[in-house]
Amino acid sequence: MCFWIASSIAGSSSSMSGAVMGFAGAGSLVLFIWAFMSFGKARLLEVAHKSPLVASLLGMASSDWARAFFICMVNVGLLIAVLLDFLRQCVRSLWWTNRPLKERGMVSHGMRAFLERIRGWHWGSVLKKICLLCLLYYCLWVGVAKVTYVFLSWLNERLETMSLAAVVGIIYIIGIIMFLLPPVPGVPVYVTAGIVISARSYCNDEGDESCIGFWQGTVLAVIIGYILKLNAVVMQQKIIGEQLGKSIRIQKFVGVDKAGIRAIEKILRVPGYSMPKVAILCGGPDWPTSVLTGIMKLSVFQMVLGTMPCIFLIIPCVLSGALLNRTGEGAVWGALASTVLAVAGLIQAAAMVFAAYILQDTLQKHHDELTAYR
């Protein structure tokens, strides 16, 4: 979740992207320490063993992909941990003379058991997947995010001399194309729409019909971004998702019969508006979420209906881009742009966290139904 949000805003503000990752890491650590101190290890293990979601995650943790991700996350930290454990053993040997046999060694019993466990891994497969994960990280974090914003910045310069109607039309066409690309998040499209359309509208030439005013142009950019998102949902679901769903291999790869995907399907099949449905459709990654609804052959009308509250995510993104056009008028405009972009990230993060909670709750309440053969 944090990787997706950070990569979405990486091109717009690299410092804020780093802050998101740092805050997420620190927040996760504090949350873990609080839970451990409040409930204790025994209670946490008891609750975890009763959770279908945790059971599913524990099953995934034994895969080479999970092991590769673990090594990517800890990397040098693992070597530091081994070194610190070795130093601790050296200190303990000075005063703990009657140590048990299992504690007599270069490292502690716990560390030795851990090293023996990872020694049995299929390291050829793990290292291969580490390379693939690093390549994916680079493509999403550096490649897609940066290239997207560089391209859109170039486009902004090209559109400066065109009429407002032409600018809106080109932004719409390019926005749709970018929404149909799997790795491109929606945030860059919204931010660019705010930059380009408001910049073209913000001028003082009374003879130019495109000079409708800064705030009017910003509102127009919000409307265009909203239409883009809803149109993209339909196209991703009908053109891509439903066609992919015809393949048994794709269905197996996605895991349409797995309890987690069936829980998502159960939530999304609820007609009308519901908070869980809105959280999944608005908080989830743009392309994967809409394509998944197509693979599961859900009602496109209901999916569009559930996506409509995304206007509350689009407004701060567009406003952030629009405010960048006024940074030359004072530092306050740049600060406002960063603030509203952070608000957009917080809204999406809140939606994702709520969606994860609802998914866990649904798995617990309907475990037998979701795991039954169909």
Automatic annotation (TrEMBL):
It comes from the Eukaryota. Keywords: Membrane, Transmembrane, Transmembrane helix. The keyword Transmembrane helix applies. The chain crosses the membrane at residues 20-40, 68-87, 135-155, 162-181, 214-234, 303-324, 330-359. This is Uncharacterized protein. It comes from Perkinsus olseni (Perkinsus atlanticus).
